[in-house]
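Minutes, project check-in
Item: structure for the 636-residue chain
Input as provided by the requester:
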Amino acid sequence: MQSATSFFNRALFRKNLQRFWPLWLGYVLIWLLLLPLPLLNELADYHGVSTVADASYYLLQIGAYGGLVMGAVFGIFFAMAMFAYLTNPRATQGFHSMPVRRETLYATNYLTGLVCMVSALVLAFALAGITAACFGALDLTALGTALLAAVLSVLFFYSFGVFCMMFTGQILAAPVFYGILNVLAAGMEWLVRTFAGNFLYGYSGYSAPETFAFLSPAWELVCVLDVSNVARVDRILSDGTHQVIRGDEYMLSGLGVLGIYAAVGIVLAVLGLLVYRRRASEATGSIVTVPWMCPVFKYGVAVCAAFSLGQLIYFLVFGLNLHNGQYSLPGTIACMLFTGLLGYFAAEMLLHKSFRVWRTGRVGALVFSAVLVCFGVAMSLDLTGYEGYTPDAEEVEFVSVYLSSNGDYLSCKLDEPESIERTLAAHRAMIADKARQLSYARTTYETPADAPVDSYLYFTVTYTLTDGRVVRRSYVDCRAFSRELNEPGSVAQTMTALLNCPEAALDRVLGELADDKSNAYLTGGYYDVVSDGAYGEDDGELTSAQANTLVSALRRDYEAGHASNASLFEDTLYSGSFYVELELWYSVRMDEKPTDRSIDTASSGSVCAIVTPGMTCTLEALAGMGIETPATARGF
């Protein structure tokens, strides 16, 4: 008898509920243990008056993180339960011989799982709302936000699980595909970044996946929900109450991303229906049921095995006692080729259900090997031009620089044309010195005592371009030589010039006090005039007014380029017959809204500056305070 409903069959819906009620009941019980019962205990045992903030905090945390975890775990379980018949040949033939369209089968099974999961959420959050209301701590906005977050997570992960079920005829393969695809893009990006970080000179690898992380739902949602700081206590007011974010920030960030993934889930559900309509019943029992997905599966397994197991084997066999500059690209490619071919033929065996796959898979294996070898050659020859690329000065909006050496260090953002030019010069010098820098790294990590190395460098530069692109390079364990300070274009000369450009020097020394519009205020300081290496012969404290005067003078000196005493090398840090050490103390008051009654809080710190004979503005200010220096006697 033909079903009276095009996309829904009541008898099948009831039958599914009868068959899978234990899974449904287990899901409900776990949610009850996660939400209403702990909330009841927390509010009942709360010392003092229960507040809306306490209940809202718990509801939003469970709605965000609990909904994510429960949706991700049980989404595939319910998908496997509702479509388990597709992994059993007899069950598949039985269902497909019924006088019910495939669209009806798919929609009914899909809705059964969705109804089970959503009904459990509604029950758990309803009981939680009743619990909070009994203690006078109910916030309907927080409750609705938390429930919506959990429902959106369920909608995506369950749809994704159903989508995975359409592509396999093996029940145990579904959770494997589902789990891998949830983190595949982020994992592969991390592996590729790690590989590039080992062999591309200047590549700043080993960072968290960014570009393709959105294709790994579980990874992306964990990161997004962590950034949103759901329901965090924002301030403690002077009357002892809490001012709490109750979902507004979460709704703008976390819920927005969850909404996008939920929409993607609906699309996946529709695509799953399209795949199901064309899926052959005879494919039941196959690891991959869609013919055009077989090559994707084979080569995907090969690439994943190459980049994961290949790099791991090289590290365990050779890399435990090596550092990045000492890694062998041919050796790593050989290990990746070995594990990639193993993965390729393993996938071929699963697809053909046979160990005799050499004849059918040898052409593909040769293609994979050729591509991997070409990849290694392209990496070794830098055919993409990555290592030698620097942007034009006109393209750079601003540049962030971190430079650490045995002497001074620099960590700031620069946007003046002169500063950008000096940064580019230092960067190009590091690129030109690639062969020598790598030769030191590949011979030994610790340079022998008799080697002509005066300073070790760590240099990271990040260009933000006018078109919005970001270019980042990082150079670790590099060397600089004091004998090359006067050699134009050398690492030592260009890095020293970068350290001493006015904008960098001002930020490097004064930090919080570099900007005269900073909300930092000076509280005092200390000075010490050092002449012929003698400390403490002329020292004393500075008042707040004196410290402000000296900071203004220091700004003028640094902006005019009077201070060029920064050095990469310890033995040339300061030269001349005298200098003045200044330590200036400051505090920074936290920003507050005028209506807040929050407790005043402030952070404090200090900056240290060296005043050399060429810094005439600061020496004049010191003389005006009656602080004598050898320059005072000479009348500057």
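Outcome recorded: The CA atoms of residues 129 and 168 lie 41 Å apart.
No further action items on this chain.
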